[in-house]
Specification:
mainly alpha, 3-stranded antiparallel sheet, 3 strands, 5 helices, single chain, about 130 residues
Length: about 130
């Protein structure tokens, strides 16, 4: 998947779900929702597409009671996904840091500009000699 379709929250949720697979090779829907919230369905579908995984729906009697599960057959496939998503998270955080630095430098330039305008105004006023008459 392309990085532009991933946000920080979904990437962190995916990492949490994938790291949970290190404890057990299966995860039920309630635990998946607990770990990833609203991203669970898309995360579940992506894991099914990218890993050898079996998915069960559970019983569909009550749509509010989601008791299906996802089971990964070869747990070693999760390690490469964790590394990939940690790299994506690093790229996202680096981008956030760069934007934060850019915003700080813009605010500093605006503040310096304001100070410069005041200094020019005060020096122009002083050059007129008006303060001597006050």
């Amino acid at each position: 998947m392309d990085l532009k379709f991933h946000n920080k929250q979904r990437t962190e949720a995916m990492i949490a779900v994938l790291e949970y697979f290190h404890f057990t090779s299966k995860i039920d829907d309630t635990k998946g929702i607990e770990l990833s919230g609203a991203y669970w369905d898309s995360i579940k579908n992506e894991i099914k597409e990218r890993c050898a995984a079996n998915s069960s729906r559970g019983d569909n009697i009550d749509p509010n009671n989601r008791n299906g599960r996802l089971e990964i057959l070869f747990i070693w496939q999760v390690d490469s996904l964790i590394a990939e998503y940690k790299n994506k998270l690093k790229i996202i955080k680096d981008g956030e840091y760069d934007r934060e630095l850019d915003n700080k430098s813009k605010h500093a330039a605006i503040k310096a500009n304001r100070i410069l305008k005041w200094a020019i105004g005060i020096s122009a006023l002083a050059a007129t000699g008006l303060p001597q008459y006050l």
